[in-house]
Amino acid sequence: MRRSLAGVALAVTSMIALSFLVPLAALVMSLVKEQGVTAAEQRAAALAPVLTLTTDPDALRESAASLDASEHLVVHLPGAGALGTSRAPAALLERAQRGRESISQEVPGGWICLQPVVLPGDEVAVIENFVPEAELTRGVTESWAVMAFLAVGLIAGSVLVADRLGSKVVRSSKRLAQASQALGRGDLDTRVDPMGPRELRDAGVAFNAMAHRMNELLAVERELVADLSHRLRTPLTALHLASERMAGTPESARVEAAIGALEAELQSIIATARTPLAVGPMGQGMLGVQQGAERRTGQGAGQGAGQRSGAAKPSGSHCEFAEVVGRRTAFWTVLAGQQDRDCSLDLTQEPTPVGLSDDDVAAVVDALIGNVFRHTPAGTPFAVRVVRLPQAVALVVEDGGPGIPDPHQALSRGSSTGSTGLGLDIVSRAAVATGGTMRIVRSPLGGAHITVVFVLAAPAPSGHRSRISRRRKR
User: Fold this and answer.
1) Range(s) of the chain covered by CATH 3.30.565.10
2) Looking at the domain covering 316-474, what would its CATH class be?
3) E-strand stretches of 2-87
4) Most CB contacts within 10 A, which of 203, 262, 290, 365?
5) pTM to 2 decimals?
6) Beta strands of 219-333 (E only): which ranges?
7) What confidence score (pLDDT) does residue 120 get?
8) CB 395: neighbour CB atoms within 10 A?
9) 408 in helix, strand or coil?
10) Nearest Cα to 109, choosing from 128, 89, 132, 125?
11) Would you give the DSSP letter of residue 112?
């Protein structure tokens, strides 16, 4: 590209220089020639008054010498011949004498000027002034050389400037191409430093924004895969409890093996989604694993949602928080009865609209209660409460298990020990999405006491039936 830009600059500048130099060179030659001819005519005219006063040859030679043109200034006197060496053709001299006509004409070897002078007695003398060819072109060669030197300097300067400008364009284009190739090979951290013309700077900024957006989308996809896989553990827990009731039957071993294989697969998907982002040279790698995981978990997520509530409303931007919590807790209450767990439920009777879908709230409840079932022994009691606050609603889940030794670590996604560490992260992100918070302390029952606050949203236009406070205990 630099060579092409330099070639274009060379061609354009050369054409411009030639378009000016050719007429200017001709003008210089014409001016020099005109100046020589004019000077010759002036010298001849200056000697004419002397002829009107005297025709003495010595006086005329002295006058010609005073005009600095004694070599080329010749006086043709009538009947006396020429005073000097004449170069004028005889026909021109006769024409000037008889016709008494001033003649200025180019002749071989230079330019000649003939000036007739009428003497007393009606006789005609002719003053001849010859200008050699060297006088007509004096200084022309030097002027042409100066103009050519200026033209070459102008062309070289324009080519140099075009090359410098082209180098910036080429350098920024190469960097953008290299960054694009690196991104295609899977280096998602590659960025470019916008430089060069405004268009290339805009392209560099757009490339950086695209790479940043790709990282964001891949990170969101990884979280989605992990979260969907984690949600499948809720119906998996129910299958575990059902298989325990089938213990001793011929089908129990096969069901247990299938459940174990499914749980191992989910654990593998979650672990893979938590690995650092990496994309292979052919677009495979982490992205392919995530897409495969999403395909594998899509149907399971739908089945899990169906198990959570057969009469669940379509997913939307608002839901009645207390209603969903009550519905999901009722599902877990049946499982709690099978493990001899005491479960209490206390719901507020005031409206609790939040800016989350039914599935999102159900995922929060399943994550909190599912942790109780997974991390506490059978027979451990737990309680669920929904408390209406002035501008928010609080979900409280507490149990009588061993509790959470390090609440801060438990809230860090993927850093919790003994589990995938996704459940509490799902809950925390759902609360933050509404502007709420999450807090973990020690429960009066002896275990964990988790309080999740959700900021209330405007009531849905369709409205919901009023809630009645109810307390259930098994």
Assistant:
1) 316-474
2) alpha beta
3) 73-77, 81-83
4) 365
5) 0.42
6) 319-320
7) 76
8) 25
9) helix
10) 132
11) E
